[in-house]
Amino acid sequence: MSSRKSILEAIKAIPREEKPLPDLPDFGISGELEEGFTQSILGNKGEVLEKSVFENWLATQDFSKILSLTESYRNLSTIELPKDPHELSTLDLAILEGQFGVAENGAIWLDDSQLFLRAIPFITEHLVIVLDRKNLVPTLHQAYQRIGDAHSGFGLFVAGPSKTADIEQSLVIGAHGAKSLRVVWK
Amino acid sequence: MSHPQAAGEFLKDHPKAKWHDETLWFVRDKRDRISKTIPEWEELRNLASQIKENVLSKLDEYLIEFEKNAQANGIHVHWAKDGEEHNQLVLEILRKQNCTAIVKSKSILTEECHLNPYLEKNGIEVVDTDLGERIVQFLNQPPSHIVLPAIHLKKGEISELFHEKLHTEKGNEDPTYLTQAARIHLREKFLGAKVAITGVNFGIAETGEFVVCTNEGNADMGVHLADVHIACMGIEKIIPRRKDLGVFLRLLARSATGQSVTNYNSHFRSPSPGKEIHIILVDNGRTAQLAREKFRNSLKCIRCGACMNTCPIYRRSGGYSYGSTVPGPIGSILSPGLDMKKYSTLPFASTLCGSCSDVCPVKINIHEQLYEWRQEITKTHGELGKGLSMKLASGIFKSPLAYKISGNLMRAALKTLPKSLIYHPINSWGKGRNLPETPEETFKEWYLKNRK
């Protein structure tokens, strides 16, 4: 007998009473969405910036490889989107467009249509996500309502830079992925 | 080694044991503070518990639905009845790819199946990419905590280890410096691996997708650079609907580390063009646990580790004292189901204080199940050494006269007898416990004197 069959038959043979699947209430948050989102991103060790502040910051940086995949900053790209993500191993800055943000925890949703190559938000040294402040939802409940039955091969909630506390619980930013996250209001 | 023996070893290094205790309590405290910011926290726990209750009552149907949808998305679905079959399936996929080196992100399931030694025996280099897991892998140790794999190590030890393995400066204990060294070392591995293995936090029946959560981004670094992604998933990780993720992701990171969400929450539905995703659904004792009505709820576990952080025994005995892949309170109710004899001391490694059940995000009645396992184990394996003293005590407590005489005798004796006699090896209760100072008079004597 195949393992599939034996596992399924073993489960079927166990007498169980069917338990109901609960409906999910629509929990919200108290307070303003933009303020909540900004505080959440700060808590996750990211930053939220106005456009002008971001542009001033960028002018002070000396990045040689920039890949911008958002309409807002298309002209900032210094390289073409490659076919193979390995070619991005020395990428300094990626600029992506976020679909929407979640106020309670700072998570920003992107899927294949914003990512182009799934490795980009991880392999880049620094990550910028451009987000429309109108596109904020209170909690993950509304976030999944918003995603609905959209079909993408890959979807990501990114909420901050790569981080670890595996050495004596000391927080270190920049474990394997992006060393910083800046959210820029559109 | 039994839990009390192994705990004794751990406690020999008193300052380190104290640090371990305090550090985990700090994590527990962070969990408390963040959970208090969510007014509906208790309602979320109830919902999560009910969703899992529903899953366990229809697990076979959900697994079939998950498989159908995953296959329609272009994912290869495999089934493994035990760890051995799981490991063979992984090796087969690697052989087909002519792959001899892989990267792997955190997966307690692959620890449970002992995948690493199996692959290494078959000539595959396995690199664990979670920083904590890489540290313990360098030491040839398993993780001592399911969320904080290297919590039993001090930075001095890690500094020495990295000096030896990664040629970092001798004596440099700065966590940022050490992490940066690991980043450089692991980046090379990520860029070179053709196959990446991950665990699974949630599999969604409705869509056939699965979700992997990390803070480091190591799972994604591995899979998006590799040609083939193998995801290893225990069959109990199924949830019915995509929107149920709203409940579980709100609870998971807050319960685990006291943060509002993990920084990366990746939803895998179909492979990138030209790439492959394989998912292995593993039983390895889970259907047997499902059949044990009293212990069925243990399968609701989402592996957050909150019960470990809060447990007064775990904090003071360390993960290795349990000798099982999943340590702590949840491990002590899961492991006896796998091997009751081997893990017979684990359900006793608890004060039954109930703190584990209080923090569990899916409301598993952990402390009640610990108590239930004690009954099962005592029935099967006898009374474990305390039997003689307990029988004696029972006889004394049953007879008022015997109680009076022995009480007077003991008060006199405890004051005069040498410690070696009181804490004799035969008296296993006395091991690790101190008797209180004996009072001058009994309560009965005090009452008679003071009732006027």
From TrEMBL, chain A:
Residues 87-184 form the LUD domain. The lineage of its organism: Bacteria, Pseudomonadati, Bacteroidota, Cytophagia, Cytophagales. Gene3D superfamilies: NagB/RpiA/CoA transferase-like. Coiled coil: none annotated. It comes from Algoriphagus boseongensis. InterPro entries: FTHF_cligase-like_sf, LUD_dom, NagB/RpiA_transferase-like. This is L-lactate dehydrogenase complex protein LldG. It comes from the Bacteria. SUPFAM superfamilies: NagB/RpiA/CoA transferase-like (SSF100950).
Automatic annotation (TrEMBL), chain B:
SUPFAM superfamilies: 4Fe-4S ferredoxins, NagB/RpiA/CoA transferase-like. GO terms for molecular function: 4 iron, 4 sulfur cluster binding; metal ion binding. Residues 292-312 form the 4Fe-4S ferredoxin-type domain. One of its GO terms (biological process) is lactate metabolic process. Keywords: 4Fe-4S, Electron transport, Iron, Iron-sulfur, Metal-binding, Repeat, Transport. It comes from the Bacteria. Pfam families: Fer4_8, LUD_dom. This is L-lactate dehydrogenase complex protein LldF. It comes from Algoriphagus boseongensis.
